[in-house]
From TrEMBL:
Gene3D superfamilies: Periplasmic binding protein-like II. This is Periplasmic component (TauA). Signal peptide: none annotated. InterPro entries: SsuA/THI5. Residues 68-274 form the SsuA/THI5-like domain. PANTHER family: ABC TRANSPORTER SUBSTRATE-BINDING PROTEIN (PTHR30024:SF21), ALIPHATIC SULFONATES-BINDING PROTEIN-RELATED (PTHR30024). SUPFAM superfamilies: Periplasmic binding protein-like II. It comes from Commensalibacter communis.
Length: 348
């Protein structure tokens, strides 16, 4: 048997073990959510970190590559962390609901979801970036749309409850001189309706994020192309999905921030160095794509975006500046000072 086949079988075995362990359920948080532990038994390789527990609301955790790696490669375990992931958290609304009702201690959200809540007083601190946004805007090759400004007065379709996607592309459109509220006709659809609507010219563009958008793009690449996204320019090195922690939990558990951030960064680094293995780990969960398609997607995306400390707050300040462009925060608000207040500095 060649080395590659051995590697694949080993990874698949570990993935099946992970899924089997995920079937062990118990009640957590007292709020009616059933939570599960993903338990490993490897020795704590870091040694200096005491055992600690945390509950995280992680949207679509079952298909999240970084979370899968953190568990299968024992990065949480190595830093003494007993991580409980709330199940059935499929979107930011459910994650926010769990977070606000103390059903979890931390959650993963787009910064575009974090900022409106933090700006209105949510008691949380941002700890570490999880990944870039992987947003894509797709248009038909027949449409003769070559630039974002060509979308003026045309229809852009999104999935329902796609606030962060719309907000992201509103920023891009505003930078190109368009008013996203006046110059764009936004349409909400079920995700299955997006591609047919685009191909029939019912709408002139569709927006979303991976893996869904990459699946559409890879399956219809002869008919559509990516006009804009978060893979290029200043966005290519910026985190979009960020893990934040409840302030009260931090007061009671001040030592958990460092090992949690480091375990996330280790997982992100491992993924960057093992894209092929990552694609195999994910293939049995992402039913719409095989491992080859997933690998192509991972290679197209920007990897290892897990900022902390100064790098994180500088990126948050950039997002606040962009909120000013859209009129969502006052121009006299100090972006730098506000970003520092929102982010949790740690010593590594």
């Amino acid at each position: 048997m060649n080395i590659q086949n051995k590697s694949q079988k080993s990874l698949i075995t570990r993935r099946k073990t992970l899924l089997g362990l995920a079937g062990t359920f118990f009640l957590a948080g007292g709020g009616g959510y059933t939570s599960y532990h993903l338990i490993t038994h490897k020795k704590n390789l870091i040694g200096e970190y005491k055992p600690q527990s945390i509950r995280i609301a992680w949207p679509k955790s079952e298909i999240d590559s970084l979370l899968t790696i953190a568990h299968t490669e024992d990065f949480f375990q190595n830093y003494g962390l007993n991580v409980t992931i709330l199940p059935n958290i499929q979107n930011h609304l459910q994650a926010l609901d769990a977070f606000k009702n103390n059903m979890c201690d931390a959650t993963v959200l787009s910064v575009l979801d974090w900022l409106p809540n933090l700006l209105t007083g949510m008691q949380a601190r941002l700890l570490v970036g999880i990944s870039g946004g992987n947003f894509r805007l797709l248009v038909s090759k027949k449409s003769r749309i070559d630039r974002l400004v060509d979308l003026a007065d045309l229809k852009i379709a999104t999935r329902r409850h796609a606030e962060k996607e719309r907000l992201f592309f509103s920023i891009l459109l505003r930078r190109k001189g368009l008013n996203p509220e006046r110059n764009i006709k936004w349409v909400e659809m079920e995700k299955e309706e997006l591609l047919p609507a685009l191909l029939s010219n019912q709408v002139q563009a569709i927006i979303g994020y991976d893996p869904f958008m990459w699946e559409i793009l890879s399956n219809a690449n002869k008919q559509i192309f990516e006009l804009a996204g978060s893979q290029t320019g200043s966005w290519s090195s910026r985190a979009n999905r960020i893990l934040g922690i409840n302030n009260q939990f931090l007061k009671k558990n001040p030592d958990i921030a460092v090992p949690l951030a480091l375990s996330i960064r280790q997982s992100s680094k491992w993924q960057t160095q093992h894209l092929q293995e990552t694609s195999i780990l994910l293939a049995d969960e992402w039913k719409g794509m095989n491992s080859k398609q997933i690998l192509q997607m991972l290679k197209n995306e920007n990897q290892n975006i897990a900022p902390i400390n100064n790098q994180l707050w500088e990126q948050i300040a950039q997002y606040i500046d962009e909120f000013k462009l859209l009129g969502k925060v006052p121009n006299n608000l100090s972006s730098s000072r506000t970003a520092r207040q929102f982010c949790l500095p740690i010593k590594t």
